[in-house]
Amino acid sequence: MNLNQVTLPVSNMDEATHFYREMGFVQIVDTPHYARFECPDGDATFSLTLSSNSTENSAVVYFEHEKLDSWVRELKRKGFIFSEDPKDQPYLWREAVLFDPSGNKLKLYWAGANRKNPPWRVERRL
Prior knowledge:
- The chain has a single domain, classed as 2,3-Dihydroxybiphenyl 1,2-Dioxygenase, domain 1 (Roll), CATH 3.10.180.
- 17% of the residues lie in helices and 35% in strands.
- The chain is built from two helices and eight strands, in the order βαββββαβββ.
- It has a four-stranded mixed β-sheet with strand order 1-4-3-2, covered by helices on one side.
- The longest helix has 11 residues, at 13-23.
């Protein structure tokens, strides 16, 4: 099994799709109420859905990039505002935090081998 995608609610589709294209994602579906993106590396996708309700949620979406600090600098040059600059975390990831125009929390990070194999890894199955 594999994760197909995560769908985020947005309040303004034009603003949101522009934001994610500026981050470097490739838009592959474009409708007035739904958009889907491919990540530039790997096989992952994510989507946006237009919501007339509050788009506030507590989900956090993580986007991985090996050259995190360079990516953040590039995004800042484009005008992206970060609530947290890249910093090393005690769980062995380096992360930066920003919010999309609808308030969805995004973490840009690099974890290397610790992403799936931290020193405290366990494997539990039925």
